[in-house]
């Protein structure tokens, strides 16, 4: 979408009451005149800064003038608006249209939230169940070699699992080896 069309789309939003105050409009006009003299000449800047005309009229005339001048002039207006009134620039209707995501596109932030919405406690609970089932499956075999290996692994794991849990597992393995 060209800047001219965007400006036409945003014109009502910008000219509505209390969106832009006189100081901000004057700063934008001065920036377009001084920093970008090819955008507004001195005579045009004086015309749009005339305090006798209402702010609404001056702003409407400025926007229409920039639209007649072309896309580059409108682009420079948006740049000046962003510098002098960033919050208003971010709230422009044309910016909201540009920010609207494609419905077929995957929103990775939302997907990341959806994958992680359970939290760390849920992860630890699932991991504990999986580790318990793996240990049970490993120790279920009545082969004495397997029990001996499990006993060695559990004997060297006071850091991994708590001391009480390790003692219970060791007693369970001893009972299995007696049977």
Automatic annotation (TrEMBL):
Pfam families in alphabetical order: CARD (PF00619)
Listed GO biological process terms: regulation of apoptotic process
Record's keyword terms, sorted: Disulfide bond, Endoplasmic reticulum, Membrane, Mitochondrion, Transmembrane, Transmembrane helix
Record's signal peptide: none
Membrane-protein topology: Single-pass membrane protein
Main localization, broad class: endoplasmic reticulum
Domain CARD: 1-96
InterPro entries per the UniProt record, alphabetical: CARD, CARD19, CARD_BinCARD, DEATH-like_dom_sf
GO cellular component, as recorded: endoplasmic reticulum membrane; mitochondrial membrane
Taxonomy, superkingdom: Eukaryota
Transmembrane segments annotated in the record for this chain: 120-138
Coiled-coil intervals: none
UniProt-annotated location(s): Endoplasmic reticulum membrane; Mitochondrion membrane
PANTHER family: CASPASE RECRUITMENT DOMAIN-CONTAINING PROTEIN 19
Record's subunit section: Associates with BCL10 by CARD-CARD interaction.
Record-given protein name: Caspase recruitment domain-containing protein 19
Organism: Mionectes macconnelli (McConnell's flycatcher)
Name of the gene: Card19
């Amino acid at each position: 979408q060209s800047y001219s069309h965007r400006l036409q789309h945003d014109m009502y939003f910008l000219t509505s009451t209390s969106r832009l105050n006189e100081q901000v409009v004057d700063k934008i006009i001065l920036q377009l005149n001084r920093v970008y003299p090819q955008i507004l000449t001195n005579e045009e800047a004086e015309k749009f800064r005339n305090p006798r005309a209402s702010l609404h009229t001056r702003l409407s005339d400025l926007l229409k003038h920039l639209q007649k001048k072309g896309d580059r002039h409108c682009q420079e207006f948006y740049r000046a608006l962003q510098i002098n009134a960033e919050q208003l620039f971010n709230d422009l209707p044309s910016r909201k249209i540009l920010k609207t995501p494609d419905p077929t596109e995957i929103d990775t932030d939302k997907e990341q939230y959806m994958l992680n919405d359970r939290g760390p406690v849920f992860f630890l609970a699932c991991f504990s169940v999986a580790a318990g089932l793996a240990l049970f499956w490993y120790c279920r075999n009545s082969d004495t070699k397997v029990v001996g290996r499990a006993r060695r692994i559990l004997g060297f794991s006071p850091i991994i699992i708590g001391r009480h849990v390790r003692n219970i597992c060791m007693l369970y393995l001893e009972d299995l080896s007696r049977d």
